[in-house]
Design a protein that fits this description.
This is Class I SAM-dependent methyltransferase. One of its GO terms (molecular function) is methyltransferase activity. This protein is an alpha/beta fold. It has 8 helices and 7 strands. The protein has a 7-stranded mixed sheet, sandwiched between helices. The radius of gyration is 17 Å and the shape is globular.
Length: 243
């Protein structure tokens, strides 16, 4: 997804390029939306911010499972917001860096943060800002690629660059895949848990999701790996702002 912390220099041009992928797969979006729906069960009128909404795909999937909740797409990229506006009722331009998000302290009941943190220069500042806009006890639904995905473990043993990691914004070097997506940081399940806790969040659950880029023949294995989040392709974390 497109990051909401405006990147410096060449990164800014990279993320404003409409050819850069901003959606991470329907399977991940559906699983994350179900986790949020469970967290908000019995509530109506909750304010949900999709921070780094990209083209609005994840917010649109979530909206179908969150009737009665108010979903707002947030991104710094004007191109992403134009596309998101076709899928999300309300979109707002905002940045995690600089002056921060255009929302008052404690004004959000939940935040979707889908495949954003791996793109950030300053993830610590980003989590501080998300914690600020969340109400005490508010829900954070964060997803990110797993550095320790089952196939990455095998690739590293073979001396191959792991999937999701990148050494250049101009091309793929030393790893499988064909798309450059601008990943700067990668997490294992353990690292993600520790990072969230250090940022003032209580980790409720870490689950796994499949990756749409896995070759078709290996997708059954990838789905099975979701039962062991530490080996899954995508990490789905549900955390709550500590009171």
């Amino acid at each position: 997804m497109t990051t909401t912390a405006r990147p410096p220099g060449g990164l800014r041009d990279f993320y404003e390029n409409p050819a850069v992928p901003v959606a991470s797969g329907d399977a991940r979006s559906r699983r994350q939306a179900r986790m949020l729906a469970d967290a908000l069960r019995g509530r109506t009128g909750a304010t949900v911010l999709d921070v780094g909404c990209g083209d609005g795909t994840a917010a649109a999937v979530a909206a179908r499972l969150l009737p009665g909740q108010r979903i707002i797409g947030v991104d710094w990229s004007q191109d992403a917001l134009r596309r998101a506006a076709l899928r999300v009722g309300t979109v707002v331009r905002g940045e995690l860096g600089g002056g921060g998000l255009p929302f008052a302290d404690g004004s959000a009941d939940a935040v979707l943060f889908s495949e954003v943190v791996e793109h950030l220069v300053d993830p610590d500042g980003a989590l501080d800002e998300l914690r600020r806009v969340l109400a005490p006890g508010g829900h954070l639904m964060l997803s990110t690629p797993n550095l320790a995905a089952w196939y990455n473990r095998a690739l590293l043993l073979a001396g191959v660059q792991p999937v999701f990691s990148e050494v250049s914004l101009r091309g793929i070097h030393g790893r499988p895949g064909s798309e450059v997506v601008g990943h700067l940081r990668l997490y294992t399940a353990r690292a993600l848990r520790e990072f969230l806790a250090a940022s003032g969040f209580e980790v409720v659950r870490v689950a796994g999701a499949p990756f749409h880029g896995v070759p078709r023949a290996l997708r059954p294995v990838d789905r099975l790996a979701c039962a062991v989040p530490s080996a899954a392709s995508i990490l789905l974390a549900h955390a709550r702002r500590a009171r």
